[in-house]
Write a structure and sequence with these properties.
binds pyridoxal-5'-phosphate, seven-stranded mixed β-sheet, alpha/beta, about 15% strand
């Protein structure tokens, strides 16, 4: 096993006490959901107290909604007018897809084979509206290199849908490279950033994507119900979502039922009543992650990865996530011959992981220690026969 890097546990030493679950379990499953912190729990208490205190504090809650927009814009380096506060990736993606047209010589939508089900399904739903959906396949080594995109993006391509980090195998796509090819050929880029935001710095203008959708449940330490959607400023007025609602209207409180006049900003991609409790929790989670440090978290997690890669190799196991740190996110996947049984055995040792496609998913975050990784390795050593 690799020698312990100096200070490998400096980050968790500072913050782990804020996540009570570590008193009971080795929680190393942030690709599914982040661990609950004291500040997110307190945010829910604040929501209830505000409700109790104010009765129906709608104006106050609209203020919270706007605070969420500010917080998200700051997180991803977008302008506030470029951000819609949504309830999920699906909601933002459906809104933008409903505003795209596929009848102007550009009907093709290219969907990478790394996409989360909701992304593939929503783009295929656009076939009812004239889109022609094609997939960009992965290589046997579990990556999708730029050449794959180079080969298929053409003058008929309306949009390329990519995920920053694949939820199945942890592989990271070169988003900036894809955007360069797509834009050269006049196509737009939709990025699903869910498995990246909070685990590594994500800056929309640097990545040069046209749209990004993500949520706060995982590495942003929030809870279910709050997502967000970014649309590049100059594209906002060109898109008229038909999946809409009164919170997308230019004047929410006008209560006009006689026309459709969407907001001039990315708020036009919103829908109905915002997820207020999830907003309290989500903003608390984002603020906590920013206080902890996303760049510092990334470096810390790469240190834990080194230990995990060495340990799995010593056990004779196979990691299907790329070895190059530039080509992976926080999630590392280990091949198994019976993954459900492996997850169950780890759970019996109080270690929380998950699985996809016959792979064990291990996703360390800011709060995980070298000892957590060693606990996973010790549990895998007891179940060596299940490693593929
Ligand atoms: C990459 C990715 N995209 C999207 C989602 C979820 O999408 P939604 O917010 O629509 O439920 C997940 C996980 O839940 C995910 O891992």
């Amino acid at each position: 096993m690799a020698a312990e890097a100096p200070g490998i546990d400096a980050l968790p030493a500072r913050i782990r006490h804020r996540f009570p679950i570590f008193g009971r379990r080795v929680y190393i499953n942030s690709c599914s959901q982040g661990a609950l912190s004291d500040s997110v729990r307190a945010a829910y208490d604040r929501y209830l107290a505000d409700w109790d205190e104010h009765g129906a504090p709608w104006e106050y809650w609209v203020g919270q909604h706007e605070a969420a927009r500010r917080s998200i814009a700051g997180l991803i380096g977008a302008g506030e007018d470029e951000v819609a506060v949504t309830t999920s990736v699906s909601a933002g993606l459906s809104a933008v897809a409903s505003g795209l047209r596929f009848d102007r010589g550009r009907s093709k939508v290219l969907v990478s084979d790394f996409e989360f089900p909701t992304v593939g399904q929503i783009w295929h739903a656009q076939e009812l509206r004239g889109a022609v959906v094609e997939h960009v396949p992965a290589e046997p080594d579990g990556t999708i290199p730029l050449e794959r995109f180079e080969a298929v993006i053409d003058e008929q391509t309306a949009l390329v849908a990519v995920t920053h980090v694949c939820f199945r195998n942890g592989s990271r796509i070169d988003v900036k490279g894809v955007a360069e090819i797509a834009h050269e050929r006049g196509a737009l880029v939709f990025l699903d950033g869910y498995q990246a935001v909070g685990s590594l710095p994500v800056e929309v203008h640097e990545l040069d994507c046209d749209f990004l959708a993500a949520g706060v449940l995982k590495y942003l330490l929030g809870s279910a119900g709050l997502g967000f959607f970014y649309c590049r400023a100059e594209l906002v007025p060109t898109l008229w979502p038909t999946q809409t609602g009164w919170f997308a209207d230019q004047n929410i409180f006008e209560m006009d039922i006689h026309d459709y006049s969407p907001s001039p900003t990315a708020r036009r991609f919103e829908s109905g009543t915002p997820p207020i409790p999830s907003i309290y929790a989500g903003v608390a989670g984002i603020e906590l992650m920013q206080e902890i440090g996303i760049e510092e978290t990334r470096l810390h997690v790469l240190g834990l990865h080194d230990r995990l890669y060495d340990g799995v190799a010593e056990l004779g196991g196979t990691i299907v996530t790329p070895a190059d740190p530039e080509k992976r996110g926080a999630l590392v996947c280990v091949r198994s011959t019976a993954v459900d049984e492996l997850v169950r055995r780890l759970a019996a040792d109080s270690i929380v992981t998950s699985s996809r496609d016959g792979n064990l998913r291990i996703s360390p975050h800011c709060y995980n220690t070298a000892e957590d990784v060693d606990a996973v390795l010790a549990a895998l050593a007891k179940s060596r026969e299940l490693l593929g």
